[in-house]
Amino acid sequence: MPRYIYPALPESEVTPERLYRERRRFMKQSARLALAASLPGWSGLSLAQDKPPPWKQKLPEAPSNNQFSTQEPLTDQKIVTSYNNFFELGTRKRDPSDWGHYLQTDPWAIKVEGEVNKPGTYDLNKLIKPDQLEERIYRLRCVEAWSMVIPWTGFQLSELIKRLEPTSRAKYVVFETLYDPEQLRGQRRDTIDWPYTEGLRMDEAMHPLTLMAVGLYGNPLPNQNGAPIRLVVPWKYGFKSIKSIVKLRFQEEQPVSSWQQLAPEEYGFYANVNPNVSHPRWSQARERRLGEEGRRKTLMFNGYAEEVAHLYQGMDLEKNY
Ligand code: MTE
Questions:
Q1: Contact in structure between 228 and 219 (CB atoms under 8 Å)
Q2: Closest Cα to atom 16, ligand 1: which residue?
Q3: In this prediction, what percent of the chain has a pLDDT beyond 90?
Q4: What number is the average pLDDT over the span 243-263?
């Protein structure tokens, strides 16, 4: 993707900082434990409460959703968890897996606001209903013309939205990622006007393909893939699938998403995968499936046209890119 400045630090300069931070983190943790042990009434039991909830240590068995899953071979899990875009952790593909471990994902709260009957700040552990989790194998097509096939564990965003009861004025849902430069070192630079923001039209958000993911390959999401909860919208370019979500806002006006704000002539609000509409600087007609040789044709709506084309009937997809 364009317009960001690649960090020009040589590895030799990066390593000492990393070691320094490791040490600082270790010291912080030791201090926390020492403090906990010194509090009156402390017992070994309160340590157990620090453990992540069961679903985050190991995901519950989630039934496969065959209706919405592709049969294509899965991308190697190592590629999926080490070749990432997560600008909050840096702009190089390996930054997210190198730096993601500073992100604390428990406890995690999601704020719900705007045109909705049940606004509030929700504890993620209470918000997830384990019996609604499913596994779905989706293609993810990045705007940079590569793609992957990933088994996600998650629940339909529509289930959550129904519980929150948006008002009749809610036409769009806006999502925001955590802003915390202490934990997310990429936010110490102005590559993006933080926090990372994305949005969906209400009918897109309510579409059964739209998933809130909490895991991949049967395990809880690694931080580099957007722990503890991210969006997955398989017919749109990957940048719509916002990671580490802390806010949902329901509103009447169409929001401006981060990439749209950064380069409006290159990235639109809809960002539907479309082989017929080129990015101004490269074609979107073909893609490289990571881990495979050669290139393959990109499919309209990333191969999900049958399910979603009706959402855009009558719209000029060259204008609404
Ligand atoms: N979400 C946030 N918060 N920050 C990001 O930089 N990158 C997006 C998307 N979600 C991004 C994000 C882009 S460009 C892509 S292609 C996908 O995440 C990549 O997801 P993956 O790293 O799990 O493959």
A1: no
A2: 238
A3: 81
A4: 98
Cβ atoms 221, 229 nearer than 8 A: yes
Distance CA 245, CA 214 (A): 11
| Cα-only R_g, the chain | 20
Which two tokens mark 261? 């704000």
- Cα 103 to chain centroid, rounded: 14
Contact 306, 234 (CB under 8 A): no
pLDDT band at 53 (very low <50, low <70, confident <90, very high): low
For residues 211 and 201, give the distance between their C-alpha atoms in angstroms, rounded to a whole number. Answer: 14
CATH topology of domain 11-58+66-312: Sulfite Oxidase; Chain A, domain 2 (3.90.420)
Strands 172-177 and 211-216: unpaired
Counting ligand 1 atoms within 8 A of each CB, the residue from 243, 245, 290 with the most, and so the one to mutate, is 243
Q: Return the residue matching tokens 């509030």.
A: 120
Ligand 1 pocket, Cβ-based, cut-off 6 angstroms:
84-88, 140, 142, 177, 196, 225-226, 238-239, 241-244
Residue-wise pLDDT tens digits, 292-311? 999 999 999 999 999 999 99
